[in-house]
Each structure stands twice: as structure tokens, then as C-alpha cells.
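lol forgot to send this yesterday, sorry. C-alpha cells for the thing we talked abt
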């Protein structure tokens, strides 16, 4: 994990992409990334995807699949800890492609931040990375949501506040 942390900090420093929010109405692409936890979270993510697609957005989803967790429906692209090489580089093609995609918005939906996902966020080409507020992780996001409630509440707030961006 030491190499992963080093790579993450390096990616944050080198990420010279223009990070700025596009007005929601003008946005076209939204990425969602999350860690698999349980069936409820999976269903909530599907609901969020449907909501965004009903707004005319193209949505891509990537999930981190921890050991001993079930990949419900195999609906979304995923990566695992086995996709991390010795040098702390994520070598999964879907994860690399996801990080390279210039989403208008990238929603990170986890209550506790995952070092592997933060690594992808650090090098992400997304214009506006949206996530739950957690002290010390400000460099990974352009827009953070304070949320002490449920993950469903976090998703609802992400959607609600992002829609208000003009």
C-alpha cells in the first residue's frame, strides 16, 4: 500500500486537467464509482443511474469489488485488489479507461473513502469530482457533500446539489 499512496499523491500533483463544473443542464456524461457493500447499495446505485439517464445523461459505472463480497447481477464494470500490481498501479483495463474518461461529473459514492478508488480519482480526467466530505481528502474533489446519514441520502444530495449548479 505504500507504493499505492505514493502513486496517488504523485497523480494528484501531476493531474493538470481543467477541473470545473459544467452547468448540470449542459452536462452529458456522468461517471459513478463505488465500493460494493450489499444488495441495498447496489439497488440504490441502479436507481441513481436511472434518475440520471431520465435526465438525458450518459452514465458509466465502475465498482470496486472487495474480497468476499458478491457482485450483484454483474451489471457494472469492476476491479479488485488483485488488479493492483506490486508498484501500486491499477492494471485493470476498465478501471484505467474509466479514469481516462472526461466525465462532466464523477460521483464517488462511499461513506468511507477507499485508497484504491482515491488513486483512480487522483488521476481522473473528470471535470468535476463529487464525493462525501471527509477531512483531508479535499484535493480529490471539486465538490464535496457533507453527509452523516445513509448512502441513499448521500446519493440524493449529490443529485440534488449537482442539479442546482448553473
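and heres what i got for the seq, position by position
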Amino acid at each position: 500500500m505504500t507504493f499505492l499512496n505514493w502513486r496517488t499523491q504523485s497523480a494528484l500533483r501531476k493531474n493538470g486537467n481543467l477541473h470545473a463544473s459544467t452547468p448540470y443542464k449542459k452536462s452529458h456524461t456522468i461517471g459513478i464509482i463505488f465500493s460494493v457493500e450489499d444488495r441495498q447499495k447496489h439497488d440504490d446505485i441502479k436507481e441513481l443511474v436511472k434518475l440520471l439517464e431520465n435526465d438525458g445523461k450518459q452514465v458509466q459505472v465502475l465498482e470496486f469489488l472487495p474480497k468476499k463480497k458478491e457482485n450483484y447481477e454483474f451489471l457494472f464494470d469492476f476491479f479488485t485488489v488483485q488488479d493492483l500490481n506490486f508498484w501500486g498501479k491499477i492494471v485493470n483495463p476498465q478501471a484505467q479507461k474509466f479514469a481516462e474518461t472526461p466525465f462532466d461529473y464523477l460521483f464517488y459514492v462511499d461513506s468511507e473513502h477507499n485508497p484504491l478508488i482515491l488513486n483512480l480519482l487522483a488521476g481522473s480526467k473528470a471535470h468535476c469530482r463529487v464525493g462525501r466530505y471527509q477531512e483531508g481528502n479535499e484535493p480529490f474533489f471539486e465538490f464535496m457533500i457533507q453527509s452523516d446519514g445513509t448512502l441513499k441520502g448521500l446519493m440524493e444530495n449529490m443529485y440534488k446539489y449537482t442539479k442546482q449548479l448553473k
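The longest strand covers residues 29-35. anyway ping me if u want another try
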